[in-house]
Structures are given as structure tokens and as C-alpha cells.
Design goal:
Layout (H helix, E strand, L loop, with lengths): L4 H27 L4 H6 L11 H9 L2 H32 L5 H10 L9 H10 L6 H5 L6 H12 L3 H9 L4 H12 L1 H17 L2 H6 L8 H13 L6 H11 L1 H21 L5
Length: 277
């Protein structure tokens, strides 16, 4: 087997990129077991002992469990609704003909080019007029049908043969059951890809919860961790070890979700763009 120089160079760049990405993560975990003094005296050295004092302080002094619960609730509900509505929309755009279909899909795709910050104030005003500001609903509703989700599902469903759906219609299966029994089982790679993208985005979303929530009991993890820093800015001591402990625990669910679904994630991204109608 002949090894090409280009493959060696590519592997070197991949390994270097992986190391660059992993180093801050490892530094965060190591720092979470250090005291405040050790972090500043020797930031890149290993801790002298696995001291869990930072983790104990995190749970004792702040409602970390509540922040975690809020983030899980919002991220899971948003992911489920996004996958379901995006799959339904993608199915409609892919397998049905209706007036204005091309223009409507083009408008949806144009939404990818609109920065979220540009619609932040109008969106907040809309949530306030609907009387759902400072609620979990306001964190979920604006994001349940993202353009990227509809596009991904539409591209993937396009690869499903029409003859398969026609066979189901001949057997007497009505349209919604065609979607449930035939289309959804074939969408597992696309569902995994969209679920990971949505979950990670919802889990790490900071700007929108910062604008919408003013009740500290409803804070999600990014807001909760930010409150540790804001306490320091208001005169308290910045507890960097506690912050690192919170960040380390906050990173566990996205990493676990990706590890579990990584094969389907890669398959969904590659197969979804394999064919365009």
C-alpha cells in the first residue's frame, strides 16, 4: 500500500487541529481541581491533589442544579420540536407540489443570511406583546423551525424514492402515516445531525436568554455561569476555580450527545447534500 505525501500532511494538520482544540478543554478540567492561588501561580501545571472543593462550592453557593435542569428542559424540548417540524416542512417541500413552493423555499434559505442580532429587538417586542417574556416558552418558540433544519431535511428527503411512497399509497396508507411509517425511519442520520446541531446551539445559547430572562430561578447554564462573573464585578471575589468547575460540568451533555450520535451525524451531513432536485 502506497502512502501519499498529501495524506501524511493532511493527517498532520488534522492532529494539530485536534490538539489545539483539546488543550483549552484539558486546561479547564485541570484548573477546576486547583485552588485560586494555584491557578495564578502555575496555570499550566497539574494539580497537587484532586481537590473537589470548587465543585462543592459550586453546588453549595449557587443553584447549579436548577440551572442544569432549566438548560436540559429547554434544550431537549427545543430539539424534539425542531426535528419534528423541520422534518414535516422538509417533507412538504420535497414531495409535494404547491403554488409558490420555490419562492417560499428561497425565502426560508435567505433567512440563513440574516444575523440574529439584527432581529433581536423586534423579536423581543413580539415576545413581550404575546406575554411570554421571562418564560421558557420564549426561549423555545423562535427557534423551532430554523432554515438550516428545513434545508437539511428537504435535501435528505429528496433522496427517498417517490416509488416507495406511491407503494404506501397503493396499500391504503394515508399521507401522515406515510410520513410516520416510511419517511421518519429513513431519516435517522438526518435526525441525528439536526438533533446534535440544535441541542448544542440551545445548550450554549447565551444572548437570547440574557435578553428574555430576568428571573434568576429560570436561568439556563450559560446565564448561571455568567452570574458567577457578574457577582465578582459587583465587588465580590472572582472564583475562577468554581467557574472552571461549572464550565467542565456544563460541557458534559453536548460531548456525550456527540459521542453517542457521531456516526449518524456525519452520515446525515454527507447524505443530505448528495442530491438536489
Amino acid at each position: 500500500m502506497k502512502i501519499r505525501v498529501s495524506d501524511i500532511i493532511l493527517n498532520i494538520f488534522v492532529w494539530l487541529g485536534g490538539i489545539i482544540i483539546v488543550i483549552p478543554f484539558l486546561w479547564m478540567i485541570i484548573s477546576s481541581f486547583k485552588t485560586q492561588a494555584q491557578i495564578f501561580q502555575s496555570p499550566f501545571s497539574l494539580p497537587r491533589a484532586l481537590d473537589v472543593q470548587n465543585y462543592a462550592a459550586l453546588f453549595a453557593q449557587w443553584p447549579f442544579f436548577a440551572w442544569y435542569r432549566n438548560s436540559v428542559l429547554v434544550a431537549v424540548i427545543l430539539t424534539v420540536l425542531t426535528v419534528l417540524l423541520s422534518a414535516l416542512s422538509g417533507y412538504g417541500f420535497s414531495k409535494y407540489r404547491f403554488s409558490g413552493k420555490g419562492w417560499l423555499f428561497a425565502i426560508i434559505i435567505m433567512g440563513l443570511s440574516i444575523p440574529f442580532q439584527s432581529i433581536l429587538i423586534p423579536l423581543y417586542s413580539e415576545m413581550a406583546r404575546m406575554h411570554i417574556a421571562n418564560t421558557y416558552v420564549s426561549l423555545i418558540v423562535p427557534f423551532i423551525a430554523p432554515p438550516i433544519g428545513i434545508f437539511l431535511m428537504r435535501q435528505f428527503i429528496t433522496t427517498i424514492p417517490d416509488e416507495l411512497l406511491d407503494a404506501g399509497r397503493i396499500d391504503g396508507c394515508h399521507e401522515f402515516m406515510l410520513f410516520v411509517r416510511i419517511v421518519l425511519p429513513l431519516l435517522k442520520p438526518a435526525i441525528a445531525a439536526l438533533a446534535i446541531i440544535t441541542f448544542v446551539a440551545a445548550w450554549g445559547n447565551f444572548l437570547w436568554p440574557l435578553v428574555m430572562l430576568n428571573d434568576s430561578s429560570k436561568f439556563t447554564l450559560p446565564l448561571g455561569l455568567y452570574s458567577l462573573l457578574s457577582d465578582a464585578s459587583s465587588g465580590g471575589d472572582a472564583q475562577y476555580g468554581v467557574m472552571m468547575a461549572g464550565a467542565a460540568l456544563a460541557s458534559l451533555p453536548p460531548v456525550a450527545v456527540f459521542i453517542i450520535m457521531q456516526r449518524s451525524f456525519i452520515s446525515g451531513l454527507t447524505m443530505g447534500g448528495a442530491r438536489d432536485s
